[in-house]
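Chapter review: from sequence to fold.
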Amino acid sequence: MSDFGTVLEAGTIRFERVLPGPIERVWAYLTESGKRGKWLAAGTTELRIGGRVELKFHHAELSPHAEAIPEKYEQFEGGVSSEGRVTRCDPPRALAFTWGEAAGESEVTFELTPRGEDVLLVLTHRRLKPAEMAETAAGWHTHLAILEDNLHDRTPRRFWATHARIEGEYEKRLGRA
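The token string follows.
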């Protein structure tokens, strides 16, 4: 299994990760604000269809390693927020929600499947604009790497340094829009 996302069709990218379980632990990292804030973004998630999802991103807080924010992303230095609505909720196996309602509705789906003591996480992001593909893929790739670090009790890697390296690779793989 490659760490790189796979384009399933135009505007859709999928990632797979095998994570240490149990499934309830991984579910908690997807749905509980404090745990999700360690790898992606804190914020409220109402676990019901139509429930509100609030994501408060503070990338500099995902790792104890201090680093400069790339000029391209300086507007995010103080954090950025996004809201969506739950479109699927089947605890602890599946969660889907719209992503960034104000900017158009793409959708993110997390599916969890037990694999012995581990858990297969499948993340699919749909309805992305072509210009967003490489940047979004690099973001998910980096956030998932930090999730893995947290679940393996490792010090989380630097977000921006990892993202910059990976974004360049996705631009090569997916093309620059």
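Two observations follow directly from the output. The CA atoms of residues 30 and 36 lie 6 Å apart. The chain has one domain: 6-174.
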